[in-house]
């Protein structure tokens, strides 16, 4: 079984070849045998390919903090769902989550936006919703003005595609201060 | 289960503004509760002292196991009724721990008009007994009431859910094998006499406690017989002659001690085996709820940010994350208990309604209690949606919700308007407990909509009658309607009328739900099955 790990910030793959009588793992095509010994003093010691090393380990969720042979290591299991989420940069279009009308435009065409920044506020069914930018970028087109109406799933804002030269400097990457909205960012806090 | 990732910046100006607004509401809640619980006219306090009686809250405190929580119901009931003359609707109800057992407590508040029952007092007592029935919780009654508030007798006596319902519920509880204990601290007259009479066990305090169908003045008027309270229905007579009462007590303290020992004899109800993990505090601080909630009922907010501040470890397994996105559905643990959460992230569309119905079926099959987090302005309206069958899809959601066999809990997190309230287990749908947040508003429509609709009607009327259109009149009507609506839409009004089981500080929600879910598991799961789903 191959496992994807993060060793610090580095990606690493490790394959478990055998568990008995001793653990054998394969890393970068080479096999290593690991023998674990609990010492009388309560410490743990392993032998890695015959080489003795002291080991201490603390767990926090999917992350392990190790002290191994005098070195501190942080190892975490890569969750494939995190990897999938990281690949989503957010599209160029913002669609209306429900039919309604524009209450306020917070940005003008050509203006830079940060991920999570509100571009416009809409109202539908007594409810005001902030439509936020799915990524850092530049507002290319605002397809509805204040007071104008739209249908569900209509595109109301288009962002300049990242390759296209924008009229202003691209915004610096900063942590998003999001008013998350259900449609513009269906992932929300998840 | 993975942790939700919050996108809220607690440093942002908006968060701070929301935080200040909702924190203020929570403060107002505390102040109102403090008044309802403790502010009493001096003469009433003097009277109780003269009679050698404890205050009702002192009795409740003595009864509960020291250091255990008390989940009080409807602490602000009647806060906008009877010119404020019946704080807390003149009674205390809630779930507490007595001798290690979860019980429902009903305590008359003799510090208000002798503990007389107002219409809302009866509604509150009946509701706490309904809670006892639905959750199979034993009841301890702390009796000290002058009886029905005679000036309002038409509202306390004749109808289905009025006075008689208290005694009906007592009988049903007994038939279900759910135990009841009454501690008689004051007079139990007329109907009130049946509370100890219908309890499995009762204790009566010598000197102040009395039980009779008609008190001495009524007896004299009816038959001319002259008799003292003690002879007619005192502790000595009832515990040694009539057998109506079981244990005499020399003082209130002694009565409570005897009561606690009686409860300690009861067999412990066996809870059904709801799935449970090791409980974990939320990763995100519930205090941040104040900043997540908006400062305007119209402003949409992200419900996952609420979920992240209620559930164990802020962990949430979301079901169908990309379908029907205006209804967030998923699994979480709360106080360790597995729950299925349905939370509004916008108007209910066809797909969100179907997803909700489907998710509830999954939870019913999986024995997973349901938690509804309401912020709903309704099902979507308009031609396209009617043609797509929004009504029948909404009907499916309401059907699945109503017929659910697992316990249901509702939190009114913000707005609750129109039929969305039904799909999301509003008050009419027999949720085990329903809590309200101070920012909550509820109504068939919003205040602005009602004001504009009525102003429009008035304008048409003026034009039809050939009157000169007086804009000032129209505006006044609009403002008055909005003001009247706003008052009735408010959480204070809602809780005053007992449309909920209490208004709570958002930060207390996790514990309130935790206690509620734990208590609910005493009752067996309901019958499986639904009515007809219209496809």
From TrEMBL, chain A:
Specify the domain of life of the species encoding this protein.
Answer: Bacteria
Q: Which UniProt keywords apply?
A: Biotin
Domain Lipoyl-binding, chain residue ranges per copy:
85-160
Asked if the Swiss-Prot or TrEMBL record annotates the protein with the keyword Disulfide bond, the reply is: no
Please give the InterPro entries that the UniProt record associates with this protein.
Biotin_Carboxyl_Carrier/Decarb, Biotin_lipoyl, Single_hybrid_motif
List, as start-end ranges, the regions of compositional bias called Pro residues: 164-175
CDD domains, per this entry? Answer: biotinyl_domain
| Chain spans, region Disordered | 159-190
* Gene3D superfamilies for this protein: 2.40.50.100
Among PANTHER family, the record links this protein to:
OXALOACETATE DECARBOXYLASE ALPHA CHAIN (PTHR45266:SF3)
Q: By what name is this protein known?
A: Biotin-requiring enzyme
Automatic annotation (TrEMBL), chain B:
| Ranges where the CoA carboxyltransferase C-terminal domain occurs | 278-527
Task: Spell out the residue ranges making up region: Disordered.
Answer: 30-51
Q: Name one GO biological process term.
A: L-leucine catabolic process
Report the PANTHER family cross-referenced here.
Answer: ACETYL, PROPIONYL, PYRUVATE, AND GLUTACONYL CARBOXYLASE-RELATED (PTHR22855), METHYLCROTONOYL-COA CARBOXYLASE BETA CHAIN, MITOCHONDRIAL (PTHR22855:SF13)
Superkingdom of the source species: Bacteria
GO MF: methylcrotonoyl-CoA carboxylase activity
Name of the protein described by the UniProt record: 3-methylcrotonyl-CoA carboxylase beta subunit
Any one GO CC term of this protein is: methylcrotonoyl-CoA carboxylase complex
- Write out the transmembrane intervals: none
Task: Give all residue intervals belonging to the CoA carboxyltransferase N-terminal domain.
Answer: 22-278
Q: What is the lineage of its organism?
A: Bacteria, Pseudomonadati, Pseudomonadota, Alphaproteobacteria, Rhodospirillales
**InterPro entries, sorted:** AcCoA_carboxyl_beta, ClpP/crotonase-like_dom_sf, COA_CT_C, COA_CT_N, MCCB/AccD1-like
Q: Which Pfam families match?
A: Carboxyl_trans
